[in-house]
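Most newcomers find our protein records easier to grasp once they have seen one. Each record describes a single protein and holds just a pair of labelled lines. A learned vocabulary of local backbone shapes supplies the integers on the structure line. Nothing more is needed to start thinking about how sequence determines fold. The record below serves as our worked example for the rest of this section.
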Amino acid sequence: MAAGVATLVARSPLVLTALTTAGAAYLVWLGVSTLAWPATPQRDTAQPAESRLRQAIRGLGISGLNPKALLLFLALLPQFTRPAAGWPLAAQIALLGVVHMACCAVIYTAVGTGARKVLRPRGP
């Protein structure tokens, strides 16, 4: 899917402009809603701990729906492909996407593990 959208964006400046405008409007909406309804810290109400599998699934869902990552695939990956290569453009984009996701998984795991080690001594 990313390869098809990337090809469409590469061929049509109007589509890129529309995506840029939509992204800017989304960021403005996030900023306005954050200023209008700021989050307030609340005391933790002892909720039962989620299983690691459930936490991983929730994290994958949140990360997978991140518009920043989708825009990265649209804007960055196509320039690292070669249409004249011996294998399809979609496969090249897919491989680059898998490499990016693997790198993110390693970094997120390292950050999560480090945070757990640093924050665990501060427990209740």
